[in-house]
Amino acid sequence: MINTRTPPRAADRMGGEAWGMLLVLCGAIFLEGIDVAMLNVALPSIRAELGLSTATLSGVVSAYVLGYGGFMLLGGRAADLYGRRRMFLTWLMVFLVFSGLGGFATEGWMLLLARFITGVAAAFMTPAGLSIITTSFEEGPQRTKALLFYAGTAAGGFSLGLVIGGLLTRIDWRWVFFTPVILSAVILSAALWLIKEPVKRVRVPRRLDLGGAVTVTVAMLLLAYGVVRLEHPGQGWGWTVASLAGGVAALAAFVAIERRSPAPLVRLGILRSGPLMRANTSALLYAGSFFGFQFLVTLYLQELRGWSTLETSLALLATGIDAILAPTLTPRLVAKFGNTRVIFGGLVLAVVAYALFLPLGMDWTYAAMFPSMILLGLGFALAYGPLTIVATDGIAEDEQGLAGGLLYTAFQFGAALGLSAVTAVNVAALGDGSPQAALGGFRAALVVPLVMAVLAAIVIASGRQRVSAKEARLASEEAIPAS
């Protein structure tokens, strides 16, 4: 553990060992982002070769969401209970194996299975990686720097994955699965050498809360499935309502079990943290707006405008500016204005970006789209990293994995909810299917990201108001002379 050898507060700069560990973990989160982005670009080519139905093709994406969202809370707590390094390395290996198996798929069910287990692997690997960072650097400038660098890498993985996926798909869509295998092998080799379990770590009882683990996983799986089904309202509401209701019932059972358990999987008291809950709520809403917007833009450019996969990827690349700004500009702004104000500024920029895109037309040039793209990239750079910091600051070391699991669950459910909402609105507003009607559908659906970003900004602003009120109260109390 870095802070057992060179205390972060003892030096302004991280040493070589710290940078080595951080780069390995950044490589893993980059891998997760690039894996998702490349697959999204390759879906039409996969359908063409394997002859997949629309439902199966949608299931390839949904399977990953189910695995990721369903097991994220369990994965985060497993890192606390059984060792962060062990969980990270084990599930990175699983990620490597099943990503490769996806590349050899000849039937739809093979892809579905591979993507589901890859999602489960990411659900265990990602919070373990984040908690290694938050327990290796004490709260302060070094942890802030590390987390913002980590967040920038994650964002860059998704942005660059769109372009790399377009290039690889031109060769063969199977390389979209084989490339993560190569990257995983390199990261795994480096991780075995550079990542070490903390020398002094808080001992957490390894007694598994089996009832809590089962009920929370069932709840997350059912809720994720219900949210995914919202994309297809025409398929009937029976299974959708049943899934959501079952998820809520399982979640209620989980809460009841955790209240009575002597060693709960999730200490419910952690949910009383105002900053953590505001950060997770804003993360859910912002992720929904961001991924919903990108999905709509992709459909608009390819299906309505006839742009190629590569042209679409390059058009979205401007949002990748966050990979440069997150580790460079954002730390300076956080140091000057604080996390809450920087997050709020990023969300306001996102609101402006979505609003500028609302009047899109059939003959829009890229110059008309560019302001939205660049503002969205800047907004993501300002909001994503500080949200990660707020969601993990002040959390005990033995619950850092859990805090990471909560945050990534919020991001994953937010992304699924945003995609489902924009798809449902777009389909409902299609009209007679003419190009003009399709354009109207896109315009109607673009309201969804705008509303979600506005709500995210309101949630963050409410936190800032509470902090300001508390500061004012303390100041007034200090001004009253003691009697």
UniProtKB/TrEMBL annotation:
Its main location: membrane. Keywords: Cell membrane, Membrane, Transmembrane, Transmembrane helix, Transport. It is found in: Cell membrane. GO terms for cellular component: plasma membrane. One of its GO terms (molecular function) is transmembrane transporter activity. Residues 21-464 form the Major facilitator superfamily (MFS) profile domain. It comes from Amycolatopsis decaplanina DSM 44594. Gene3D superfamilies: MFS general substrate transporter like domains (1.20.1250.20), Multidrug resistance protein D (1.20.1720.10). It is a multi-pass membrane protein. It comes from the Bacteria. PANTHER family: BLR6921 PROTEIN, MAJOR FACILITATOR SUPERFAMILY MULTIDRUG TRANSPORTER MFSC. This is Transporter protein. InterPro entries: MFS (IPR011701), MFS_dom (IPR020846), MFS_trans_sf (IPR036259), Sugar_transporter_CS (IPR005829). The chain crosses the membrane at residues 21-43, 55-76, 88-106, 112-135, 147-169, 175-195, 207-225, 237-257, 283-301, 313-330, 342-360, 366-385, 406-430, 442-463.
